[in-house]
Amino acid sequence: MSTLLYLLAGVGLVAMGLHALFVHTHLLRQVLALNILSTGVFLLFIAWGSRSPADHADPVAQALVLTGIVVAVSATALALALAVRIKQTTGKSSLSDEADV
Amino acid sequence: MSELPWIVWAVLIPLAGAVLAFLWPAQGARVALLVWLGTGVAVLGLSLQLIQSGVQRYAVGGWHPPLGISLHADGLSTLMLLLTALVFGPIMLYALAYFKNPAHPFWALSLFLWTALNALFVSGDVFNVYVSLELLGLSAVALTALGGQARALVAAYRYLLASLLGSLVYLLGVGLLYAEYATLDLQTLGRVISLDPASAVALALMTTGLLLKTALFPLHFWLPPAHASATAPVSALLSGLVVKGSLYLLLRLWLEVFPTEATSGLLLGLLGAGAVFWGSLYALRARELKPLIAYSTVAQLGYPFLAFPMLGAGGEVVVVYFVLSHAFAKAAMFLAAGSVLLAFGHDRLSELRGLLQSLPLSVAAFALAGTSLMGLPPSGGFVAKWLLLQASIAAGQWLWAVVALLGGLLSAGYVFRILTRAIADPKQPAQPKAAFPMVELVALALAIVSVLLGFLALPVLRLLEVGR
To answer: Which residues of B touch A30 (CB under 8 A)?
Structure first.
């Protein structure tokens, strides 16, 4: 039962993250959207790793999520650094569509 | 000598070099050149081991799969490692002359990029692949941002979003596979996988994520701005090698893990055809040199996918040959475009009349690399198209050969847009700011290799057969 709850929450977070990533143009909101999306993916990993016997969860799934979190933190740091630089050079804090080649 | 685990050194040497160059930036260039030497030796050693005793495996820390992490190199991995070392070396020499700054952040970042590529090529499980893909994406984005101007920063940011989204979608697929089969090992997965709905969804997710990272039409939107606004050596790395990382992975997954299913391969072939036409049309309309070359990358990335419907029936060789010839040709073109930027401070096509008189070596590089992009004999591009023709006749799928021939005409169109202007008689010849013989020669050397690849088909195909 609780596994189903985690699964649903994971799917919900993934959907919210995807939606926000495509809808918002503000740099910070896009970084947040990606973080929500990745949290959703990690939650799904945890749910999938909670297989029987129910007294212990699959450690591999948890190790993968830990690694994933480290990767997500570094990616977020790079995204934020870039966002700050974009704000400093262009004065804008959201992506417009005319900035093409 | 033959007992050394060269496969480990091929990843460790660039990693150690990257950390060293990061901590000690003043010596960045020197470290990078040493790493080139060391990694070159490691990759050559690995190739010899492979030829002598077949597929190489290494269980990290002595822990064997399914518990531990295993490195794995067959003919395909080794070929990609060799390609990376061969393309990286000249680009580093070029960067030395281009940046004129041995302490430039380019060195540490490019070594991290090299680590990620090599780790990707020898990864034996789908999760290690994810970690290497992320390292690859992050270092590629940071390199793109080195351009510094607003255009490069925005392009790098878009690239980062696309890259992260691609990895997360891929990771979701990995999770599904793990939930079902309780293993991450590529070979084990290949043995136990069956085509039930959950696996089909997992495969679709992994493929979509990787296609986004490979920038296959219609998921290519992030590539042209990023590749066009990065500095020339970075553009050469991005177009020549980085997109090939995820393409390599797609090939391996489709060839060894996913159960064969014809219709999905057909879809990839059609997307590839779309890429060939879409990218070429935009390259024909571009007003500047680097965007033209970047859109040409979008088009050229379509060709390997034309062979995906024929995987297992000669298609895999076609994919590899397109990857090899495009890597050299496109690196050469971006480096030559960098020489034009250095010499004139701009790359507007309309003002490049008479380029032949001011930068003859760069024009030669454009012409030779162009031969390979068009697929004229005896270039590597010609061999790739020839193999595609053979495979499509053998499989009775003529469509792909027709697309490749039409695409050749279109690429002739955009290559000649550069060449006709270059050989035109200028009204008032533009004077280059200075002479850059080193920079021009490196681009020319890569272009020559892209043509010579046409003569190397046999050894390449033989190496590819190891472990197949």
So the answer is: 161
